[in-house]
Structures are given as C-alpha cells and as structure tokens.
Amino acid sequence: MKKYYRKILLVLSVVALIPSCELLDCKDCSYVTYEDGVYVSETPSIPYCGKALADKEAESPVIIGNRTTQVECY
Questions:
Q1: Mapping DSSP to helix (H, G, I), strand (E, B) and coil, where does residue 18 land?
Q2: Segments forming the whole domain that contains residue 59
Q3: Residue 50 lies in a domain
C-alpha cells in the first residue's frame, strides 16, 4: 500500500512541475496613444495569456485625426 501512495505522490509531483503552455505564453498589454508619432499616454498594463493574448495583439489601432491608440504588449 505504501508503494501505491508513493507512486501517486510521484505522479502528482511531476504533473505539478509541468507548466501549462498557456502560462508560458503571457504578456502585459496596455493601450498606448501617440499624436503625430509622439508618445502621449498609456493605460496601466494588464497581463493576458493564451487566446486572450492573441486576441488582444490582433486588435487594430484606432486612428482619430492625428492621434493613434494601439495595443502594445511586452
């Protein structure tokens, strides 16, 4: 019976040590505004992972007059 519990503990330990792919694919993103190519402001960054990150990075810039607001992830 002890061998069984040791095997279970070993398997759980190995599984806990394997990071998920989603955790490896994370970045902090914020909206950054430029006016005539010059930095104006940005929002506080928020972490995104996996599909949410891909969706955020795929957002198109918003251009109003000479101001451009876009998502920047790092």
A1: coil
A2: 23-74
A3: yes
